[in-house]
Amino acid sequence: MLETDYRREFGFAPAGIFLNTAMFGLPPARATEAGAAAVRDWASGRVTLDAWALPVERARASLARLHAVEPDEVTLGANVSSLVATVAAAVPRGGVVLMSDDEFLSLTMPFENLAKPRGFLVQRVKREILSRQVAALAPAWVAASLVRPQDGQLLDHAALLAAARAVQTRVLLDISQAGWMPLTALGEADLMVGAGHKWLMGPHGTAFMISAPLARQSLLPVNAGWTARADLTLPPWERQPHAPSARGFDQSPAFLNWVVQAAALEVVEEIGVARIAAHNLDLAKRLARGLGLPIPTSPIVTVPGNADLVRRLQDAGVQHTARGGNIRLSVHLYNDSDDIDTTLRALNGN
Ligand SMILES: Cc1ncc(COP(=O)(O)O)c(C=O)c1O
Question: Strand, coil or helix: what is 311?
Fold first, then answer.
């Protein structure tokens, strides 16, 4: 199969070999340019808030299309943790929130910090038995990452959803590491939260939550600000209710971030998530094969590491994450088979 040169086509500009999208993604040229132009407009004082609101709504519409929902079901925020806090603030007193013991802190901390003051319990179990424990404990909520950031392991979300439905447990999925995969089949989760700064190639400071209407009724808009008001034509100091849609949970937008994010999301849509998944998985498989590792099911590949291997990657200009004795390599649109082969030569010492 002929490889598509997304790096050239969309003007990605990594210096060296960037295999670190699980940490943060790189913007396509049009997102970089949109951001630079927005900063210039800001500096000139010519910009209006109404103009800055447009990319925010463009991004909301993109996120809705990408997840096969209506824009009314998309809440925008600045990070995953504060969106999760809208869920944590509304867990019923005496309820249980179940999570595995290996989750990213932005998913766990809002629950753990609010458990005592709000009178609910957080239970942590091994990821392998999460679905079984849902059936046994019938918690109010179960929260899990769809793709584990440490190593790209995929959650068996079908099993989790089935177990949760049977006992009326609500399901919160963190899809921050899943922006490379088609997610429309996840419609049955009550809530999904995701960060924009990884696979969706936006800057830090964009995040979103997709909520089913029934689940949304049980949330508390603890972060909502003036842009969450029902009638945007009324002055933002006039008392009024929250928007009845998911926008009623919006944090006031960091406008510059959304300028960049909206342009990056348009590239994601233009290429299509199915093609992105195919490209990324092809490269991840090439990498895993070359390292003698099992075939990966996500673009995140983890190898046992040591200082020598880290040095060799640095010498070859390969950006990666080295943590807890492992080296995490993650591939995205700006990578190609040459990147993988150079990385393999560095790791295999040939
Ligand atoms: C699974 C997961 N969730 C969330 C985040 C980001 O959380 P926040 O937006 O709160 O920084 C990350 C990585 O940064 C992550 O890997």
Answer: helix
Instruction: Please give the distance, rounded to the nearest whole angstrom, from the Cα atom of residue 345 to the centre of ligand 1.
Output: 31
Whether 106 lines ligand 1, by a CB cut-off of 6 Å, is: yes
Q: Is the CB of 251 under 6 A from ligand 1?
A: no
User: Which stretch of DSSP H or E encloses residue 193?
Assistant: strand 191-195
Distance CA 181, CA 280 (A): 9
Is 20's C-beta closer than 6 angstroms to any atom of ligand 1? no
pTM over 0.90: yes
Ramachandran region of residue 168, left (φ > 0), alpha (ψ -120 to 50) or beta?
left
For ligand 1, atom 3, which residue shows the shortest CA distance? 176
Q: Residue 305 — pLDDT band, cuts 50, 70, 90?
A: confident
Report how far residue 276's alpha carbon sits from residue 271's, in angstroms, rounded to the nearest whole number: 7
Checking phi first, is residue 18 left (phi over 0); if not, alpha (psi -120 to 50) or beta?
A: beta
